[in-house]
Amino acid sequence: MPSTRSKPTTEDPSEEIKGATANSKRKTPQSVDVPNKTFILPSKRSDAARFLSLPNPSSGDFNRYYFDPEGAGLYEFTAVASTQFAPRSILFTPNNGDDAQETKGYITKKAELLIATPIDVLFFMLPIIAPADKTSTSNMFQPLDDILDSQDELSAHVRYIVYNTSFRSTLERRMQSICDTMEAADEKLYRFNETKLLKELIAKADRMIAQGLPASLEQNFIHKALAPPLMSVKREDTMTSTTTVTTVENEESQDMEVVETQSTSATTTSTTLSEQQSGVSTPATQPSTVEEISPSSESVARLLRLRIALSFLKQSYLPPNLSTKIDETLKSPESPIDFKPLDDRLKELAALRAEAFASRAMDGDFTRKRGFEEEDGDSERAAAKRRKDEEKKAKAAESRALRDLKKVNTSGMKKMSDFFKKKS
Question: What is the pTM of this model?
């Protein structure tokens, strides 16, 4: 008789997961129960490690996490999957050695790996020590146990983490990084400090940009945002007096006719309004940018990377009420980091882009200005093309009999009107 999974309980999540683990061990590799998710767990983990269901610090939705109180602590799962444009699958087989005659495995339809990556437990403590509905005791120094006991709605799995004796020292150490502390009767008291939280987030963002942002983020949010606009392009096209032989093909008679045309034009030069005002000559086909006016320094680029990293941390791990307060603190004079040079540079680039757009719009159709001779030639060619198109349409409207009748030689025939003339 196959073993059944024990019913989930809320009193002791450890016993629940132990029972599920014991039942899974009793299943043979040939079992028909094929897992539909693949987890990559840390290589160094203790027997006390457990899968837990915890509320997401930002959204509050329950997600799966991995908790090892005697190891590295808490882990979240990052999904690495193939895209819909390049679907993949994964083949899993047991490692029976080279002498195995028969190997049974299974294939996952979706190539998705859930990789356990460390996550700071302080993000799960923020909704507890800084709730959205702030009470009168939130600004007071309190022992950690009193802070935890005041939250009656904590889930069983969250309680399993915060009351775990093996993990207690790590929890207290992370609490000190975002709280003011004081000693009272051989007991440590804690009070949440928003400035300390902001400094902790900045330190995490610094480590992120030190390791390097992903290439897609660097290209789309750093290089494009700080790239100077293309102000103008000056082109010089010199055309000399030449004689051109053009071959014209008659579609109906397939006769070839050679037409000799004479074209003469002078040098045409197009300049933008910004060049006319400044009087600066730009080499032919060389783009003129504002890089010489205000170069983007590395410090400004670092500030932009830091802002993007902070934005990611706020959206992923902070409750909405704390995210709003962090934004207000960053804009205040008490902010530990000054983003004013970045804001000034972005405003300058926005103004230059608007100026570049206006200057290109004055050139008309975003192309270079052409000389009057070239415009006249274009109008003549356009009129000839229209006449040719009209002739084609007229020929297409004629019937075949009418076209055959036009080919008849009527030089020796009398006209139809001769038969109706009055006799003299």
Answer: 0.61
